[in-house]
Amino acid sequence: MRFEPTRIPGVVLIRLDVKTDARGAFARTFCADEMAAAGLPFTVVQANLSRNTAQHTLRGLHYQREPHGEPKIVSCPRGSIWDVAVDMRPDSPAYRQWLAFELSPMSDTVLHLPTGVAHGFMTLEPDSEVHYLMGAAYVPGAATGVRWDEPALGIDWPAIPSVVSDADRHYALLGAA
Ligand SMILES: Cc1cn([C@H]2C[C@H](O)[C@@H](COP(=O)(O)OP(=O)(O)O[C@H]3O[C@H](C)C(=O)[C@H](O)[C@H]3O)O2)c(=O)[nH]c1=O
Asked: Residue 168 CA: which ligand 1 atom is closest?
């Protein structure tokens, strides 16, 4: 695994070491020791799978309020997604900055997101799936989010969403920093 930090602290692209042979390919997608050695200690508490039928389905942007902040390791085992991370940590030098990454099985990349970073994605093709390793438990009462079209962020999306949940449409706007 190769770890590529970004300008948002803790948002790290993890490039997989893919072994190929006549049958296809094999790659380790998580290693606790390598994560710790990279300064990203991670204990898997829960794992989730998201299946998305329509192209341009949008989910997010979600995160959990402290003390229930949830580090995540996100991957796209099927289809492809435009994956967005937004730093929602007021004390971060990258507060309210966003980054986007295209993830797919061919990207041979998983994405580490620290606590306090909102996460969302838009599918780029039908029947795309997203897999999550979660470093903290789901606590519905601590769940919060940011709107995909939040004016204060100006996130670039590849398309207008085809499907968005009512909850995701109705997060409060952030207003001035
Ligand atoms: C997140 C979660 C949800 N649920 C239940 C609650 C609902 O009955 C159903 C769908 O939940 P929700 O609409 O919040 O699912 P997503 O919109 O895909 O949420 C996820 O999407 C964004 C992009 C993320 O990064 C988060 O991991 C996660 O919030 O699954 C659970 O039972 N456990 C869970 O951990």
From this structure: 17
Query: Strand pairing of 128-134 and 81-87?
Result: unpaired
**Closest Cα to atom 2, ligand 1: which residue?**
138
Decide whether any atom of ligand 1 lies within 6 Å of the 120 Cβ: yes
pLDDT tens by residue, 99-120? 999 999 999 999 999 999 999 9
What's the CA-to-centroid distance between 138 and ligand 1, angstroms? Answer: 8
Instruction: Report residue 175's pLDDT band, with 50, 70 and 90 as the boundaries.
Output: confident
Active site residues: 62, 132
**Ligand 1 centroid to residue 129 C-alpha, Å:** 13
Please say if the pLDDT value at position 177 is more than 80: no
Fold of 2-176: Jelly Rolls (2.60.120)
Whole-prediction pTM: 0.96
**Mean residue pLDDT across the chain:** 97
Query: Ligand 1 test: best mutation among 115, 134, 138, 164, most atoms within 8 Å of CB?
Result: 138
User: What is the position in ligand 1's atom list of the atom closest to the CA of 134?
Assistant: 27
Q: DSSP per residue over 136-167, as a string?
A: S---GGGEEE--TT-TTT----SS--SB--HH
User: Residue 103, preceding bond cis, omega within 30 degrees?
Assistant: no
Q: Could you tell me which of 42, 24, 46 has the C-alpha nearest to residue 34?
A: 42
